[in-house]
Amino acid sequence: MNQRNNPNQVNKRLLTVSDRDIFVTVQKALLVGIILKNETRADKEESLKELTNLVKTAGSNPAIIQTKRVDKIDPKTFIGKGSIIELEDISKSNDIDVVIFDCELTPNQQKELRAIFQCDVVDRTGLILDIFALHAQSKEANLQVELAMSVYLKPRLAGLGRTLNQQGGGIGTRGPGETKLETDSRLIDKRINGLRKELKKIEKQRIVQSSSREKNNTPLVSIVGYTNAGKSTLLKSLTDADAYTADELFATVDSLQRELKIDNIQDPLIISDTVGFIQNLPTTLIESFKSTLLVATKADLLIHVVDAATAVPELHISTVDQILKQIETTGNQIMVFNKIDRIDKASLNQLIDKYPNAIFISSLKKKGLTKLIERIAIEIYGEDANGEFKIKPSNLEIVSKYGKILNVQNESDYLIIELNMREKLMDSLCVNKVMEDVNNA
Ligand SMILES: Nc1nc2c(ncn2[C@@H]2O[C@H](COP(=O)(O)OP(=O)(O)O)[C@@H](O)[C@H]2O)c(=O)[nH]1
Ligand SMILES: [Mg+2]
After folding, report:
1. How many CB atoms lie within 10 A of CB 427?
2. Which CATH class, in words, describes the domain spanning 3-167?
3. Residue 248 CA: which ligand 1 atom is closest?
4. Quick one: average pLDDT of 287-307?
5. 217-381: CATH superfamily
6. Which atom of ligand 1 is the closest one to the Cα of 229?
7. pTM of the prediction?
8. pLDDT grade, residue 165 (50/70/90)?
9. Which ligand is nearest to the CA of 248?
10. DSSP alpha helices (H): ranges in 63-138?
């Protein structure tokens, strides 16, 4: 029986599509992995596994998985005739609601395939956008998702309109939050422009916020990494933040900032969590998420969290590095392997050999966090050191904000103090003439 008609399969999630709220059933999905010329099946296995998780996260049932070799992309249908006939047969005899391709389809290919399969056809980009729409919480994230979706939808409206207006409720048809996506091709450009303007305003506010942070010299540390690596869990463990964590892809599509206190330094630094990355992250999403991603772009230090338990850490690392380059981050990077509680000793040692400068932690079990905090402190403020300085008595208060005063000796009109302080802070206080290094004088 088609699951759409099976009351036991009703998914209780309420969605807003078109102009009425409806309950949707779990869509039964046929997943199509694609192996292009020069690619091997092994290359694509991870991507297909990821696609399966994405489909589950979107609330659909990845019922059947097929892999097709495509030596030459058919401009009309992407895959060749033989494969189409085969997939059409599988789709019909299994009451498939949606066929999901692990690649990017052109609007025309999507339209053509919809006509052939007589059900929804979604590509990887549409699927990722859909999950972002489900998870967007803040006003900013909602606007960003709506912009990305509108840009994606615009050239596709001709082939989609009917499904959107009359059926609705499946992957690729819902907007973020309560938003009704603009599906009138005459109005969509106006909406896109409006969204861009609103986002520009938010971006400006963010830049103002970050320049006041810079003026106060408050360092910004940004947690970045592949989706599901454990970024939000790490923020939570480091700061007791109330971050939302879930074993889902793209559970976080906003950014969250918290304070992190370093021993002996009075003012905390700011640490932020943000949206994760994935292979083939739609460029329209990266462009739309500019204001959210500013926390990474502007960060003094990036904590690159990697899931130690994934089979393909290198692939995740290079994907993240590529996107960081794209958004033009400039901060130094600390590589952090998370979830070490999920791997055995031998695998851990292999990673340590391969990444000797990385830090190995379990955010969930709170292991290795002290080491990580110390590394953050070193990167931002330098190594801990002791020194002897000459200061005016009136500067004692300032100095004690940045380190620990071990001993004070009164001279006629100045003090000689013995200090324990981070080296970069010592240097900066000397440069600013707050204190003077006795041994270098
Ligand atoms: N076993 C284990 N699971 C973890 C650890 N850190 C995070 N997780 C789990 O991994 C999943 C994704 O975590 P989350 O913080 O939401 O990842 P994010 O997408 O990077 O923010 C959740 O189910 C977490 O409970 C860890 O150190 N060990
Ligand atoms: Mg998260």
Report:
1. 13
2. alpha beta
3. 12
4. 93
5. P-loop containing nucleotide triphosphate hydrolases (3.40.50.300)
6. 20
7. 0.87
8. very low
9. 1
10. 81-93, 107-117, 124-135
